Amino acid sequence: MVKLKTFSLLKFIFQNAAWNWIAVCLGIFLGGAGGLEAVLQNAAAQNYAPFSAAEVQELAQSRPVQVPEGDYFMDDFESSSPSWLEFEKDCTAELTLRMRQQGEAFSGKGYEYLQVVCRSEGSKIYLAYPIPPKKVNAALSVQTVLSSNRSGIELLGRVVLPYTVDPVSGKAFCLYVSNRSATTAIRSWQKLTLQNVEREMMSEVRRIQRERKDIQFDLREAYLDHVVLNVYSGMVTVDVFVDRLEVSGSAAGTAFRPLSVPAPSSSGARNVSQENMRDFPPVTHEEAPAPELAKTAALPLPDEAAQTPAVQTPAVQTPAVQTPAASDGRVVQESAGSGASQKHQVALLNGVVLIDEKPIFVRAIRYSGEKLEFLANLGFNTVWLPEFPTYEMEAEARLQNIWFICPMPLKWDQAGDYEEALLKSGKLRNRSLDRVIAWDLGIPPGFNDIQQMAPEFREMTALALVRRHLEKIRKISEDVLPRRPSLCFPHKEFAEYSDFCDILVLDRSPMNSTHNFVDYGLWMRQMNNLAVNRQLIFAKIPSQFSPILKAQWRQIALGIRNSSHDRALDPEEPGVVPDALPFEQIRLMAFNALIAGSRGLFFDSTSRLDAPDEETVFRRKALSLVNLEFLVLEQWISRGSSFTTIASDHDNVAGGILATPYVRLMIPMYIEEDGQYVNGPGAERQVKFMVRGMPDTYGCWNYSLSGLSPIRTIRRVGGVEIELEELPLLSTVVMTQNMKIISSITQRILLYAPLLAQRMLELAEMRLEKYLRSYGADRLQGNDAMWFERAKNYLQAAEKALQTKEYADAFMLAQRAMRPICFLEKRAWKERGKNFPSPNFQPAGVAFRSQKLHEKWRNAIQEFEPGPNLFTSGNFEEPVRFKADGWINFRLYPEKPGIVVRANIRQEAAHTGNFGIEMGVLTNNKKRGPVILDSAPLTIRSPKVYVGPPGTVYQVDVWLNIPKKLRNTVDGVKVTDTNSGDVLAERIMQTDGWQKISFQRIVCSDQPVAVQISITGFGIAYLDDVSIRPLRETPAMERSE
């Protein structure tokens, strides 16, 4: 009876919206356990007045939510004010009731109750929860718990694209993303999740692009600002109970700085309901059409222009326009839209670099003072500058269709406003910077660099310092500085840097090291996977031997010349201290980086490419040929993504597949053992591949300079078998069903075939000449003379084929001419190094071109004997002296979840005596541990000791015991010293009991030397008896005794 009277009273009260809150609470209180059910039944029968827009805005601004610091947001719905808003709908529906209640919640006691009455057919009724803006990335996720009287309630998120204009509303374009996570049960709590918001955003953008051509998407600084529920379930009343909302995986978007445009005059349906949504900043859009991006012309080198006809594609030339100068000296470009300092639009979309909406595969070269026309003729489309380009360089770049990557003239610890500092520096005077496509942040500062900064920065980490630096750069007005992607060179914490840097450059070379090409490709793929936001990965490709390596060689040559062994030895002679890397290794590394997921290449050059010396001529011809090969396929590799790796029936042959729209490119390569030191012949016959996942309608074509020729395929269980009759060092197989693509690739091959054949022939000629000088004509006897004669015959045949314009034959014969030379070099290198524990034992033993020096040095020091150990506690027998003497252990992951790092002096780790060091990196959850670590979790560093003046030879000995192969690493235990660095490091994955690791080096400076032992993967290694001993020449009297 009490309940009936109560609800009669409530029926009257409900007609007055001002009493809604009191009535509901009173009904629940008087109704006891059945109060909630009664309120729901009664509410369904009533026609409540909807909340006004003013009420909604007032409630949204006053809602108490929990906003913890960092990348995590959570509301447990324990407060009293409701948060969900009526947002967007395509049917007649009303949010008639919303309130916070206490009761049988999923967690805690509170939840939010929402009731929606639908009176017509439709597909969506969106209720939204405003959250602090969260940057969209692959780690961003949303989770909530809800219960409802209807199934099919779906969780979505609203993503704002602040730099994409909605042609209808004139504001930032918004879209909804979803994992199709919806309720399946009725009246029971159920978790709904929205994961990988970035992937869903990309998918939705592609869908919209197919339907609407009037939207120019720019995904920079996209952020999630609303969690949305689609509660449409037909013409019914829907009751929803929401509890515990969590958003994690992205830093709060506090630095969004979109530009502004006037709203267009056209009217129409808006993208989202404007009445019930929070304002977000307006956007800008470049309305003026940008000049078409033309491919860089591949021209012959300046010194060969008379011999080879120029093959050139038409390039759009943008004439320089005289523009008035501002009072501060900046060039003020005249434009109808935004400042013309951003004449070209640069965007990153789906792992592709877009310039004016056209994809580009970046082939950059470090600038050393050459003319831009010269670099463009070598096939480079981007120049990597040490500072802002000059006005003259910008004008020339427009003519040559060259782009720039350059750093900011700002220090890491720059104080004050960056924009003001730039204007005061005068660096912007007479510069438009419209040809810049990325800002180079450089290598993050190290610990010593940070300690030299102002006091307020000394407690900051390098990661925090770079993030601060980049955020301040992004705050610079676009009228002053074009908004461009950021680019940095991290050596560790790749995942963390990928959260805010747009492009990561991987600076690691396998050349002349214990890190082989197979490990390099695996490491590149793993670093690519570590990128949280699937950032673009560029690879740095060296064209010269490492400066550390050349310093060792030069010091060895000086030592030999200063002694009585060979006074005629010249350290500046290329035959003694070579400069240019072999062409095959540059080519292999570039294509290895491509199939590992790199979307751009930075070719490093520490000296001018237009110098006339033989080493530089060889280097620029090699770089020109590699660029030409990429230029032929640029249209497809610029859009492609690494699809999979693929093995063959030959041990030394493997490759990868790039997936692009409508075509797949398979790039098989001959990767020989120890090829990072000296590459062998690099050729196989009758090579078979099993390709999985290739559509039935696809055909296969083999790439050659005569065009694309069909390859016979056999479909077998598990895939399609492809057989290549002959595989040179590397090849390309095109898989597609689109004959237009086949025709387009063939046309590009025929366009560049003369230059490709000419370059390969020139490289073969120089290769034969260099071998003859290095090895010596007097040694060419017996089989060696036969092999060299065969190379000469192939070379002569290639010259004849080029004269008759048989470019495919000339290209192949020139490659065959180099194979006997590669065979002879590999055999001689192995023969000379067989008496050493590893190629890295002596610095001159890591390349064939340094074998002349290696032989002389080996003869010079064969009478040397080791002196005393400079480490007084290298046997670790006195644990108390370990730290006192200066031994240090660096732990880079001391608090990383799932990783346990330990370094202990233990009796079980002893090789001799009583104690040794146990180094361990373990995971307490093998299923959730990291796949690979981007840097060594633990490093043991010895005290720094003075070995001797420059020219002193010394030997390092380390005893290691690695019982089980280390997991999730390509480096194992890395042993090196501060004098020779990683390029000459020894890498050991597993040992058979205790093993002695030794290497000899020569002092190159007056700095003290320390030995470093790092464990880079999961497992345990034991370390003992570390020594560093100077080598001294035994006196003649002692030798005679």
Task: Walk me through this protein's architecture.
Helices cover 27% and strands 26% of the residues. The strands form eight sheets. The protein has an eight-stranded parallel β-barrel with strand order 15-16-17-18-19-20-21-22. It starts with a helix and ends with a helix. The model is unreliable at 1-70, 252-342 and 1036-1041 (pLDDT under 50).
Query: What would you give as the CATH superfamily of the largest domain?
Result: Glycosidases
Main-sheet strand order equals: 15-16-17-18-19-20-21-22
Oligomer: single chain
Domains, number: 4
Structural class: alpha+beta
The assigned CATH architecture of the largest domain is Alpha-Beta Barrel
> How much β-strand is present in the residues?
25-35%
Distance between the termini: 122 Å
Main sheet makeup: 8 strands, parallel, barrel
Tell me the name of the CATH class of the largest domain: Alpha Beta
**Number of extended strands:** 42
Calculate Rg over CA atoms: 34 Å
Q: Label the overall shape.
A: globular
Q: Helix share of residues?
A: 25-40%
Q: What is the name of the CATH topology of the largest domain?
A: TIM Barrel
Determine the mean pLDDT: 80
Features of the shown structure:
single chain; 1041 residues; alpha+beta; Jelly Rolls; TIM Barrel; Immunoglobulin-like; 4 domains; eight-stranded parallel β-barrel; six-stranded antiparallel β-sheet; 22 helices; 26% strand; globular
